[in-house]
Amino acid sequence: MHASVVSMWVQMGLLAKGVVVVLGIMSIWSIGVMVERFITFRQARNQSRDFAPAVAEALKEGRIDEAISIADQHKKSHLAKVVSAGLQEFQAHGSSKDIPGETIEASRRALERATAIGIEELKRGLGTLATVGSTAPFVGLFGTTVGIINAFAGMSAGQDTGLAAVAGGISEALITTAFGLFVAIPAVWMYNYFTGKIESFVVEMDNSSSELIDYFLKQRERRHGNV
């Protein structure tokens, strides 16, 4: 098997070898993105599971400073980034006994900005997977097309005719298509997998933002009741 692969590589033309090298670079690039995104998403999930109950307990007792500190200890959590932004904005404008509507609105905007930034951070690298998944088959097909052209050109220049004369060249040319599909399929699979994870994270961030706004409104009502 190893000898067969080596012999095919040796018999490939310069352009076909270039196509294989390009596909190899695309494969390594996409694998790097897959590994990095998988680690990032796993850290976000694990830290969010620890962060959510801890910050909920702190906010239940009105300890906003402690809640912000807890968020700072979970920097990989997508929820912590959003909640921290909202709490810091609320704390900066809501230190007085009266909490005006502008403070709630400013906190809402801070939550929206943090969510938008978080989504972009989660999407980082997915464009690479989409590009590799959509273009790798065509890169492989390009190598195949050129290889077949060269095979038939060699047949026309020689004495031999028929399928046997071009079978070797065509089999070598088809390797680039197979390699292109081999590179593209995992990229498409992982792109869809990560996209689904991001959608789940976005729902969680939106829910956390809504719950935090509700918490701010309750704090406002409580302070108004104590005035």
Please provide a written account of the structure:
The chain is built from seven helices and no strands. The chain has 227 residues and is mainly α. It has one domain (16-226). It is rod-shaped. The mean pLDDT is 84.
Secondary structure topology:
Elements: H1 2-11, H2 14-60, H3 64-72, H4 78-93, H5 101-123, H6 126-157, H7 163-226
What is the succession of H and E elements? Answer: HHHHHHH
Give the CA-CA distance, first to last residue: 83 Å
Total helical elements: 7
Helix coverage percent? over 70%
Mean pLDDT: 84
Radius of gyration: 28 Å
Summarize, please.
The chain has one domain. Helix content is 89%, strand content 0%. The protein is built from seven helices and no strands.
